[in-house]
Amino acid sequence: MPKHKFELSIDEWHEIHEFPDSWPISKLREVLALSEYEAEVSDDELAEVVLMLLEDQGPRVGAEVVLEVVFGDQMSAGVRQNIAEDLQEDEPWAQHATVAQQAGIFATVVLLQRAMPKFFDHPEAVQFNLKVHSNVPEAREWLTDHVNAGLVVRLLAQGMETQSTLNRLYKEELNSDCFPAANDILWCVSKIDVDRYSIISSRHWMSSLEDRGNWTASATRDRISS
User: Fold this and answer.
1) 41-76 burial, b if ≥16 CB within 10 A, otherwise e?
2) What CA–CA distance (Å, rounded) separates 211 from 138?
């Protein structure tokens, strides 16, 4: 895949403490079911009842219940038990080795912190807008296509210092056209318009960009399977 030159800038950088719609009614009812709560609960009362139940269960058992709702069969009971207490540490999602599960760990702590603020720190992630421009026709086509996470992460990485966490851990992928973990590093990415993205991610990955102004980058997009 060819590389093309892009001009980038970031604005509207701010902290967020939850994902949009991270705990819809359907997920809260799963918490209710796993907690073996059998009384009828209206949608208006659901969040309050769930928080009460989790508080009654305590931080360890409550964490296991929420982890099971978030991950289901993707995380075994043994793993849930092992990491339940780790969730009380600072930014546990950043310490979790499986990158594909980091966003889920964050969402888990969001609900647990609401229920037990004495035990769980207020979770923080970052949200910002990325403006991308290129004078190269093919590069502009890439921007009008669906969001290519590999391309976006490569562009972001080139705005960071070489010793940033992202550049150190993913040197090979950043210099290739195959970056499967890019979709997990960008917890949420959406297009505002043709050359502007809204991005949510962990400060663990993106802190180097907080005060970044403009920069240029040369990058390719990920291969698209036919």
Assistant:
1) beeeebbebbbebbbebebeebbbbbbbbbbeeebe
2) 30
58 SS3 class = helix
User: Cα separation of 175 and 218, whole Å?
Assistant: 10
Q: What is d(CA 84, CA 198) in angstroms, rounded to the nearest whole number?
A: 31
Residues 59-97: tens digit of each pLDDT: 999 999 999 999 999 999 999 999 998 999 999 999 999
pTM of the model as a whole? 0.93
DSSP-assigned letter for residue 8: E
Closest CA to 66 of 20, 17, 22, 125: 22
* CB contact set of 186 (below 8 Å; sequence gap of 6+): 149, 152, 153, 199, 200, 201
DSSP 181-200: THHHHEEEEEEEETTEEEEE
DSSP string for residues in 86-99: GGGSSSHHHH-S-G
